[in-house]
Write a structure and sequence with these properties.
The chain has about 140 residues and is mainly beta. It is built from two helices and 13 strands, in the order E-E-E-H-E-E-E-E-E-E-H-E-E-E-E. It has two domains: about 60 residues, Beta-lactamase Inhibitory Protein, Chain:B, domain 1 (2-Layer Sandwich), CATH 3.30.1450; about 55 residues, no CATH class. The longest helix is centred in the C-terminal third of the chain and has 9 residues. About 25% of the residues are buried.
Length: about 140
């Protein structure tokens, strides 16, 4: 996987398309550093963590365990040509509000969601710490 990656809303990350199998992901990134299995009540979700790359991937039972959600913390990743990790909350929201992806909705004090495109920004100390998006 190349160091610089760009987020493709609804489609995945440059080298990792939504719908990829775990074998296909492993062929690109290698074995995950950590694997979690989470019981969501009505289904299982398996999370693969690549801490050194700043990427976590989810494979949900309802999606036949294909890649369905990506979360990044790598400052190299771009969205609409901008590196958002480390950007101040107001600046990131103002930038995304110009991208015609639908309205932002505060999730909590720690997050802002763009439900129309299945995108959530997570903040730590007032700065973007993680970007999470899913297949639409």
């Amino acid at each position: 996987m190349s160091k610089a990656q760009h987020i493709m809303l609804g489609k995945g990350l440059a080298d990792l398309p939504f719908g990829a199998t775990r074998d296909e992901v492993e062929a690109v990134l290698g074995a995950p550093e950590e694997v979690d299995s989470v019981d969501l009540g009505d289904e299982e979700s398996i999370a693969w963590h690549y801490w050194d790359l700043g990427i976590s991937l989810n494979f949900d039972e309802s999606e036949n365990y294909q890649l369905c959600t990506i979360e990044v913390a790598s400052p190299e990743v771009t969205l609409f040509g901008k590196k958002l990790i480390g950007m101040k909350r107001d600046e990131a929201v103002a930038f995304l509000d110009t991208q015609k992806i639908g309205p932002s909705k505060p999730e909590t004090a720690r997050g802002v969601a763009y439900e129309d495109v299945e995108l959530t920004l997570w903040f730590n100390g007032g700065e973007v710490a993680e970007i999470q998006w899913s297949r639409m």
